[in-house]
Amino acid sequence: MTIPQTWVGRSRPSVDAGEIVTGALEYVTDRFPDGVLHGAVLRSAVPHARIDRIDVTAARSLPGVHCVLVADDVPVNALGPREVDGPVLAETCVRQVGEAIALVAADDEDTARRALATIELELAPLPVVDSPTAAAAPDAPQLHPTGNVSGRISFSSGDVEQAIAPAVLVLRRNVTTPSQEHVAIDTPGGVAAVEDGVVTIWCGSQNPGLHQRKVARALEIDIADVRMIANPVGGAFGSRNDDPMPVYLALLARATGRPVRVHMTREETMAAGAKRHPFWTSIAIGFDATGRILGSSVRAVADTGPVITSGPNVMKTSGEMSTGPYRFPVASFDGTVYYTNNANAGAFRGYGVPQVAFAIENAVTEAAHTLGLDPMQMRIDNALRGGEPHSLYRHRVTDSLAVRATLEQAAVHPLWTDRVSWQAQAAWPWRRGTGVATAIKGVGMGSGTGDAARARLEIDGDGHVTIWAGPNHTGQSIQTTYGQVAADVLQIPIEQIDVRVGDTGVVPESGPTAASRSTYAGGNAVRMVCDELVRRCSELELPLQLDPEGTGTKLVELGEATYEQTFVLPDTDDIGLVPPEDLAKYGPHRVYGACTQAVRVELNTLTGELRVPELLCVVDCGTAINPAAMIGQAEGGILQGLGLAIMEEHRLEGGVPVTTSLENYLIPTISDTPVMHVEMVDSTEDSGPFGAKGMSEVVVVPTPPAVAAAVMDAVGVLPQTLPLTPERVLSLLEEA
Amino acid sequence: MRLNGIEIDNVPAELHGMRLLDYLRTERGLTGAKEGCGMGECGSCTVVIDGAAVTSCLVLVGQVLDAEIRTVEGLADAGHGPLQRAFVARQAVQCGYCIPGVLNSCAALLDRVPDPDDEQIRTALDGNLCRCTAYNRFYDAVHDAACERRTDQAGQA
Ligand code: FES
Ligand code: FES
Question: Which label site among A122, A160, A627, A729 has the fewest CB atoms less than 10 Å from its CB?
Fold first, then answer.
């Protein structure tokens, strides 16, 4: 039976939009409960030092101070089960600027900051490991007992050098992509309070269950005594995966017995918040005369800073995406993640894909140019199609993969077809160019990982349905999407359905808001739990749609008013060359979203200024459940990709951040924003809710290489280092 | 000062040195004004002071004792319901954290220029950072609001 759809596919404003525009929505950082204390964090100003002495006597005796906590005061001073997860508070040494050393709670923020200033700290400087190269040096200081290698992943599907021996063109290139700061406009913070032995933490999180476990570990309390309420929060983009803030809040609330509030400053967030991993990527890739890829070998090095956070997992994703959206016979990948005393790097929208995509897309751009081929057609000819084996792991990718369709649709758009005449209209000192790039990214945590999402449903005597589901929302209004799915399965008005996310007290564990999985995984769990209610109603011959009230009343009477379902993300049907025992280690995906972008660039040959006036984005996301929300996600993602391409770089010198605030770390403003055309292709993912899959990360990926290709089209040189600041553009022009 | 149309006399002297942003959030419970940087760079704390969009993190209470101040909570009463509704209908909000500041910048513009063009909207919003959206729908929402306000006025005339 096919379910007639009513809500899915229709744009619908987010459920909390009304409260957003009146200022009524209470973010976790807007809470000022009665008797709240204000917390602050003492942070290291140096990248690497031994801690010889911390004296908090003066701070503790300052009037208005309620507690001062150092490492010894943390029951289990660990942010995770492994040493490399790092401590909650620095104990014997500090390993990055911004590392937390002490926590204070006081009557007001001023007193808390004054208390921090009285803490006496004796630090003995240690040599700074300021790059992966320094970390790999034989005499490098070792940042962990396990050494300076945080993770390594390599895989080969055959002999690449042999495969590319007959190539008419072999490119061996190195590209560099910078550290990028999320700049969620809301900085980390929130409130914690202890009541009846339960610590409740209102703090943004993309993984409330993980944060619940982190808090329980550090405080040495039962996980049932920790409740994370993880929204509303002002943006995340990956920054709320590894954030230790919930642990700080919980410690302070427990130590004082009072509610405690902390809201990090922008400067603190710039120094201490996890960043996008900077990468150094090299590629060797061979092409035949028609532009077909014969084989590629990619080596990547990443800097994860002093603790592990997502380092090796990011590199795992880089490995899988190192062959781009292309189909070719032989590939290899070798990626290494190093510890350094630079900024910790963690999850960031795209999760290791933009970095390697820049290498492979640049290579394809250059090859098309050298071989005299159309860069769009060359991509179409090489595109991986649905159901085909992935180029590295040879596992089967989903039938719905429509990367080729995204390219074909972009190829006929005027932004692309008019590129020659548009270029010819440039007026000195400006030059113009148009570039294209394409990408895919997996949806979910990958095969073998047991990735799952859950949903619980309850119907009451009024026929009103409440659904508790995950993953959490951090700005995507995922509740709206879940509500649309539920309304269509239940065939009842959407107003009769309430969706709650992000509260570990009531939402069953559903994993992170990450890996483009929320719509696909959470949406499927919602679909399943609604299916279950529909099934039960039909067994009991209860007319849910015609008489929701009577049906609800009856189900409550029968004690059958609640349902729970788990959606386990399906693994790929054929794991290809991946050894079954290593399936989770490589985590190849079954389902991928795809995106092609074509970008226009104008470049000032005197000043190096680079403008992006117009951009086309074609997305393969399966069914768009809430099309305007999907397009909004795409636009925001593109702008973050554009920031990475042309202006954003978190810079450090000798481990000391140079970009310290929004004064010197710039992100795109409305004036930097191009006119964007976002289109969808027709695709349906059979395993997704109503055919949907995920797309919110892949849209970040093509932007930087498309900009690079446009620069080459404009001035004849292909940039290999991001971001394309005016200085970099000027030095490129010297090469031209 | 007049805050969202309400006269507030005798702001205690010890609060004069407080940032207006903190005063609004902690003393008046107007948490619609958000902090994103504390140094005038992000615009999420933007309120309207004597008709101009101003970042309230850079203003001290003592500087605005005689001023007319409007926050996002006062937008509807000031006739900006159409603007608020347009932002909802255009699905121009995501996480929403920047939105109160964005709306105040737009409202100050609409009060000055009833039918702004894109260039004027861009200039008005150049100090408001949004990391979720790509700003484009802000133009549409402002145009919608301007149109609705014109139609309303025509209806009343
Ligand atoms: S908080 Fe005032 S401009 Fe950012
Ligand atoms: S909507 Fe999130 S910052 Fe603008």
Answer: A122
Structure tokens of B20?
């207006």
As a whole number, mean pLDDT of residues A613-628 equals 97
Query: Is the separation of the CB atoms in A696 and A235 below 8 Å?
Result: no
* pTM of structure: 0.97
A182 touches chain B (CB under 8 A): yes
CA distance A519 to A517: 6
Strands A226-229 and A198-203: parallel
CB neighbour burial string for A515-553, b if at least 16 within 10 angstroms, e if fewer: bbbbbbbbbbbbbbbbebbeebbeeeebebeeebeebbb
Q: Which residue of B has its CA nearest to A233?
A: B95
B125 touches chain A (CB under 8 A): yes
Name the pLDDT band for A2 (thresholds 50, 70, 90).
very low
How far is CA A562 from its chain centroid? Answer: 33
- Which among A16, A183, A185 is the top mutation candidate for probing chain B, defined by the most B β-carbons within 10 Å of its own β-carbon? A185
At A163, list the tokens: 């495969």
Domain range list for chain B: 2-71, 76-156
List all residues of chain A from 603 to 622 with a beta carbon under 8 Å from chain B: none
Cα A249 to chain centroid, rounded = 24
Window 246-265 of A: residues touching B by CB (8 A cutoff) are 263, 265
Distance CA A352, CA A256 (A): 41
d(CA A288, CA A586): 29
Fold of B2-71: Ubiquitin-like (UB roll) (3.10.20)
Of B55, B99, B129, the residue with max ligand 1 atoms within 8 A of its CB, to mutate for a pocket test, comes to B55
Q: Which of residues 9-48 of B touch A (CB under 8 A)?
A: 25-26, 30-39, 41-42, 44
**Interchain proximity A477–B44, CB inside 8 Å:** no
CA-proximal residue: ligand 2, atom 3 (nearest): B130
At a CB cut-off of 8 Å and minimum separation 6, what does B45 contact?
B21, B33, B34, B35, B36, B55, B56, B57, B101
Using CA of residue A528, residue A533, residue A534, residue A535, what is the dihedral sign? positive
Q: Count other Cβ atoms within 10 Å, centred on residue A225.
A: 16
Quote the CA–CA distance of A157 and A152 in Å, as a whole number: 17
Describe the crossing of helices A403-411 and A375-382 by its angle, rounded to 10 degrees.
160
CB of B68 within 8 A of CB of B7? no
- Ligand 1 pocket (Cβ < 6 Å) reads B 35-38, 40-45, 55, 57
| Span A485-534, pLDDT tens digits | 999 999 999 999 999 999 999 999 999 999 889 999 999 999 999 999 99
Chain-chain contact of A663 with B84 (C-beta, under 8 angstroms): no
Residue-wise pLDDT for A133-171, tens only, equals 999 999 999 999 999 999 999 999 999 999 999 999 999
* Of B30, B99, B129, Cβ closest to residue A669: B129
Which ipTM was obtained for this model? 0.98
Chain A contact set for B130 (CB, 8 A): 185
List of domains in chain A: 31-126+188-263 (3.90.1170.50), 279-446+577-735 (3.30.365.10), 452-568 (3.30.365.10)
**Cα(A639) to centroid(ligand 1), Å:** 21
d(C-alpha A211, C-alpha A240), whole Å: 10
Dist. CA A621–CA A688, nearest whole Å: 10
For domain B76-156, give the fold: DNA polymerase; domain 1 (1.10.150)
* Joined tokens for residue A318: 């880089």
